[in-house]
Amino acid sequence: MIGAQQVIDVALAEARRQGRADETIVVVNDRVDASLRWANNTMTTNGESTSRTTTVISIVRQGQDAHVGSVRTSAVDPAAISDLVTASQRAAATAPAARDSAPPLPGGDAPPDWDHPTPVTGTEIFGGVAGALAQGFRGRDTLFGYARHALETTFVATSSGLRRRFTQPTGSVEINGKRDGASAWSGVSTPDFVDVPTDRMLDELATRLSWANRTVELPAGRYETIMPPSTVADMMIYLAWTMGGRGAQEGRSALSAPGGGTRVGEKLTSLPLTLYSDPGATGLECSPFVATTSSSERASVFDNGLAIERVDWIRDGVVNALAYPRAAAAEFGAPVAVGADNLLMTGGTASLDDMVAATERGLLLTTLWYIREVDPAVLLLTGLTRDGVYLIEDGRITGAVNNFRFNESPLDLLRRATEAGVSEVTLPREWGDWATRAKMPTLRIPDFAMSSVSQAQ
Questions:
Q1: What are the beta bridge partners of residue 277?
Q2: Which residues does the annotated region (Disordered) include (predicted)?
Q3: Which among 230, 288, 337, 363 has most CB atoms closer than 10 A?
Q4: What is the pTM of this model?
Q5: For the chain, which residues make up each domain, given as ranges?
Q6: Three-state DSSP string of 143-175
Q7: Is 400 in contact with 390 (CB distance < 8 Å)?
Q8: E strand or H helix at 130, and its extent?
Q9: For residues 369 and 429, what is the distance between their CA atoms, to the nearest angstrom?
Q10: Per-residue burial over 126-145, b = 16 or more CB atoms within 10 Å of its CB, e = otherwise
Q11: What's the CA gap between 58 and 175, in Å, rounded?
């Protein structure tokens, strides 16, 4: 397998030779994955894999219009590059005019590490986790779970001379513990598997499983609910995914204002919460430039290589920004805003234990599952609770309760939240395969809607 840099050089040279496109963008993604799984207190499988995807994006300009052809392959044979370029240029020649057309970005010097080899990972990175689990396997709880680590190096190059490169480390550990029919989940994200708190995770699972020694059946209804950071992340990530400017401007989203326009400037909560993305966020660093192989309402192929900055989507409780690629920003007279691949929210000073201690009666909701959209007009989501809903009475956890189906909107949760705790790096349970980099506070919701009892265990 030749280097990604050579793939780019060959593809751009071939595009010039064929000459049927005015501009060419090449995106190469090299990925190395390692994984470790365990079940019934026994290590089961581990493995490593290497993959590459190469995308050639051809742009044909005709007056004010631009036509785009984007073709991708996972083949690594250099002989396939010529056919890939041909297919891309043919697709551009027959494509309709692109709605998101924007001028080409200027070229510049390649980054200092452009020619460096792509880094790799392997199962040896799980040594610390495996050692701690070996101790846990000798305990009273039955453990299941997996750990994964990926290094994904993305190269973006254009015929105008622009060059970008970034290596994204992504890792997570998820553990399920079971005891006497009860189940609990704990998960963490990690870029490098340094100092993964496996012992603390096992202690948390043991504590939660001990809470299930007493079980309480509760009916559907509205309950004061403490949402730890993982559950808040699952709801806020979905909100961030829907914050496209075009959809809001055209009246197709929950961020559309009644009578036209958007909800930018609307106050959601009196709590001083700021929801933002930032490629330079400490410990949650992610790609500082656009790298996309297809256009959407939140990203454009014409913006490949564009620098990504911090964006405050909600600032001090007020809707502050929506996502606009360059073309949409020009169309609607809005600032260009492209989200980084992380999401953070500020919080308060109370710990989770403090917030539980201040609760007379309510629920501690530890994980969410199977979240789906019900009504995009108000961003109403439904989903299930799983692996641990606990009853709080007089400031103490007194037992586990049955699972529920819930119906809630992340916008309404922010409107109704009465307290925010300390913001912590967390792993969302539902979206952890796609959105690993998150930092969220615990939220107190006075009337979380448990719409029906779930039989799921």
A1: 311
A2: 91-116
A3: 230
A4: 0.96
A5: 4-189, 214-457
A6: EEEEEEEEEEEEEEEECCCCEEEEEEEEEEEEE
A7: yes
A8: helix 127-136
A9: 7
A10: beebbebbeebeeeebbbbb
A11: 45
Helix axes 127-136, 198-211, angle to 10 degrees: 30
Structure tokens given for 112? 């200092």
Which residues, 6+ apart, have CB-to-CB distance to 357 below 8 Å? 395, 396
How would CATH label the architecture of 4-189?
A: 2-Layer Sandwich (3.30)
CA distances from 41 to 131, 178, 386 (A): 13, 11, 21
**Residue 235: predicted pLDDT:** 98
4-18 and 80-94 are packed helices; what angle lies between their axes, rounded to 10 degrees?
50
- Concatenate the DSSP letters of all residues of 400-449 into one string: EE--EEEEE-HHHHHHH--EEEEEEEE--SSSTTT---EEEEEEEEEEEE
Pairing relation of β-strands 142-158 and 23-39?
antiparallel
- CB of 104 closer than 8 Å to CB of 304: no
Does residue 421 contact residue 445 with C-beta atoms inside 8 Å? no
pLDDT in tens, 280-289: 999 999 999 9
Quick one: what percent of the chain has pLDDT higher than 90?
Answer: 98
